[in-house]
From TrEMBL:
UniProt cross-references to Pfam families, sorted A to Z: DNA_pol3_delta2 (PF13177)
PANTHER family found in the cross-reference section: DNA POLYMERASE III SUBUNIT DELTA, REPLICATION FACTOR C / DNA POLYMERASE III GAMMA-TAU SUBUNIT
Protein name (record): DNA polymerase III, delta prime subunit
Signal sequence segment: none
GO biological-process terms attached to the record: DNA-templated DNA replication
InterPro entries per record: DNA_pol_HolB (IPR004622), DNA_Rep/Repair_Clamp_Loader (IPR050238), P-loop_NTPase (IPR027417)
């Protein structure tokens, strides 16, 4: 994400607040960007840093081509400090080192920017040191704190920051964003129905895991249609080896739910809501096996299976029970 105009497509309020502050020369000395993972907080922090350092800003947009912008992209700008958790937390020593850096004059100018990622993971001592830092702000220093859980940050720190919420992406915006990132249209439709987290969606596409999930879901429904007596064998020998962890099995059940939802949408004449957009022929064939009432019963069974997984019932037992239920629908 290289432009505020791009951020406005997904986070219009956050982008507008930040660009307005810049244009009116009313930048806060500290910001707290909060919202779910994948909503663009990190990209917005980098973009704000570029805007503050770039000498060629036009209409709030950094040029992306100057030495300052390129060094920020490469992570080598001497006056931009990015702090991430050291292990499971952000420690007092990291904040002390940051304060020490700020005692020096900026190498390029008097401006300095620091970003603290996962700020909710600061230890108590680190938070107290940061609070002292925020209480005595330098005019040319800008702090940007990023968090998924703003309530875990002490109130005295929050009160000294301008808080900016990053909202979850809606399904249409998520779909458009993924397509713009080069994701195939069919995968973008399905992923945007599974998550509103861009990072999570892109991570799912790494390797063959997601493609295999899609294939296994369709294969399971085809076995239930044409060879129902072999469904349990399929689940034990092909489905379960792919979903060996609780989280991955939950994701597989989510995709299975979307397949049955698509059949329900087809029954209801709501084709615009369908996410398996490439499988129309397979879906129409499946609808000869499952009526609207049967599809609804199958979806209830999948929801029950997901609850059982959360209750730590043995995954194989859960899937065997679900398969028998899907056979009876």
């Amino acid at each position: 994400m290289e432009r505020w105009e791009q951020l406005k497509e997904t986070q219009p309020l956050a982008a507008q607040m930040l660009t307005n502050s810049y244009e009116k020369d009313r930048m806060a000395h500290a910001y707290l960007f909060y919202g779910h993972r994948g909503t663009g907080k990190r990209e917005a922090a980098r973009l704000l840093a570029k805007t503050l350092f770039c000498p060629n800003v036009k209409d709030s947009e950094p040029c992306q081509e100057c030495r300052e912008c390129r060094r920020i992209d490469s992570g080598n700008h001497p006056d931009l400090h990015w702090i991430e958790p050291d292990g499971a937390s952000i420690k007092k020593e990291q904040v002390l080192n940051l304060q020490k850096e700020f005692t020096y004059t900026g190498l390029e100018s008097d401006r300095k920017v620091y970003v603290i990622e996962a700020a909710d993971l600061m230890t108590v001592n680190a938070a107290n040191r940061l609070l002292k830092f925020l209480e005595e702000p330098s005019r040319d220093a800008t702090a940007i704190l990023l968090t998924e859980n703003s309530e875990a940050i002490i109130q005295t720190i929050r009160s000294r920051c301008q808080q900016i919420a990053f909202q979850p992406l809606n399904q249409n915006k998520m779909r458009d964003y993924l397509i713009a990132e080069g994701v195939s249209r069919s995968n973008a439709f399905l992923l945007s129905a599974l998550t509103n987290n861009v990072e999570e969606a892109l991570e799912m596409l790494e390797g063959d895991w997601f493609a295999n999930v899609r294939k296994l879901v369709i294969q399971l429904t085809e076995v239930l249609q044409s060879k129902p007596n072999e469904a349990l064998l399929f689940v034990n020998h092909q489905w379960m080896p792919h979903f060996s962890e609780k989280d991955t099995l939950q994701r597989g059940l989510d995709v299975l739910m979307l397949w049955y939802k698509d059949m329900l949408y087809e029954h209801l004449g709501r084709e615009e809501s369908i996410v398996f957009i490439q499988e129309k022929d397979k879906r129409e064939h499946a609808m000869m096996r499952w009526s609207r009432a049967q599809v609804t019963a199958c979806m209830s069974g999948i929801m029950e299976a997901k609850r059982h997984i959360n209750q730590n019932v043995h995954p194989t037992l859960v899937m065997e029970q679900l398969t028998l239920q899907l056979q009876r629908c």
